[in-house]
Amino acid sequence: MDVLNRVSGVTRRIVERSKPARERYLQSIAGGNSAGPRRQALGCANQAHGFAACGEHDKSLLRSGSGGNLAILTSYNDMLSAHQPYERFPEIIRAAAREAGGAAQVAGGIPAMCDGITQGETGMELSLFSRDVIALSTAVALSHQSFDAAVYLGICDKIVPGMVIGALSFGSLPAVFLPSGPMTSGFSNDDRKLMRQRYAEGQITREELLNAEAQSYHSPGTCTFYGTANTNQMMMEIMGLHLPGSSFVNANTPLRDALTRAGTRRALAITALGAEYTPVGRLLDERVFVNGLVGLLATGGSTNHTMHMVAMAAAAGIELRWDDFAELAEVVPSLVRVYPNGKADVNHFHAAGGMGFLIRELLGAGLLHPDVQTIAGPGLSRYTQEPFLGADGELVWREGVAVSGESKLLRPAAEPFESHGGLGVLDGNLGRAIVKTSAIAPERHTIEGMVRTFHSQEEMQGAFLAGELHRDIICVVRFQGPRANGMPELHKLLPPLQAVQNHGFKVALITDGRLSGASGDVLAAIHLTPEAADGGPIAKLRDGDIVRIDANTHEMNVLVEPAEWERREPAVEDLSESDHGVGRELFRMFRRTVGTPDAGASIFSSAAR
Asked: CB count, 10 Å around CB of 169?
């Protein structure tokens, strides 16, 4: 009963605190249920511009037909493996729309950058802000007001959250998200991590490391580890924006194509022109966001979503807080062990029972709201099913497996890996931070140690190569927050910290930057707020200070005499280098106006300056 009370209690508090903003939002999207196709409300010249380039069939429908028109918003590019499969999607969608009596047009291209390519490079300083650019791009694409629903082709880190924020700005339109699917399994993630550590210690050559990386990232589709991209897919399914069982079907397969066609048909079926009108702004209510939080916690998903979920909810007039994550984490069990939380990848997870098994277990344990709206219809129970191709090649759904195919990576709620969700909020005299413990051994959940401060990844790497970190140590990497340099992911920190830890030393990290879903097995207090560039307490730390981090009691404090701590002046840093180069000068406004991480680190945040 405590579980049920906790989930309902958190939901109730979210509803109560969000009520004024949610009511304003719902009023703003009311009246979107038009009597006819939206394009017919435009002037003649406006309409003619909209169908001028179409073929005769689509032109005829768009000119005088009564069928719906789908907006295709695509993040296709052929540089990024997860987005390359989208090259084929518009033609598949157009054909399926015609068969269903409608039309589909590419409404706009959405920028998609890859943290895997930019990690450790200057371009990473644009990464978090790209989410808000994607939201803006989505709004621009939909601003022609010629569409009755939209299908979203996006999958990776900032793309899906940005698209959701943009979709909610047109909340009267139905929204269906169509994933491209993961690549097949290659060189194991665990072995690749070891190769990175060995390279950091100079034990293998760059060519050997590149060969291992190329065997890991080897074909079209998403990366197979459970980082932000695949957390996005889990979340879109458990929140009812994907078709059931569609998140982890491999890219460029007949089943994947069948799901894309089915998603297109479903998008046309839920427009205001039919009897199942399902506007995305109403679908994504408080209960749906709580379901997303539960999915995040049960699977050990990306810490980036402690910001993305807050920002997405805000776009729907819903106020999520880090306290909601922490409170739910106390009762949501950990049911999944996929790298970096285990050795398996998302293909193994899918084969073991995947989303259908996970959702059935969470529903059975009373952890999900079952009576929500989804693009597949009312109620979440449909999402315990899996899609298959029948003997005639048609798409069919069957009830998913009742028993996990591999208990080492997917477990029932009655036999979890842990009784808690593996995500917490640390509080203390250094501020607030996120900690992810799902991949960290229990004996490493608490550390008290001496601080060494750095102002960049490169500075810390230099100390590692000089042998200065091979001791019990808490590394503090500051001036990495959104106002300082855009809050880049600090992946370069992990191999050296893991190497030091593997030599038997106690290691932890404190930063106002990000580590994302690949945060791994080092105790890390991340997203620290207030950040150093705001004069936050992290800027007062000095080399040799003693800090205690306790992920069990959710505390983080510097053990300095209070009077001395009060007297200290915060360190300052020349941040002008982040003002220019690789496009960073164009994002100066973002750094000046961005909200804090606990408010979503968004330029749209009500807490933004």
From this structure: 20
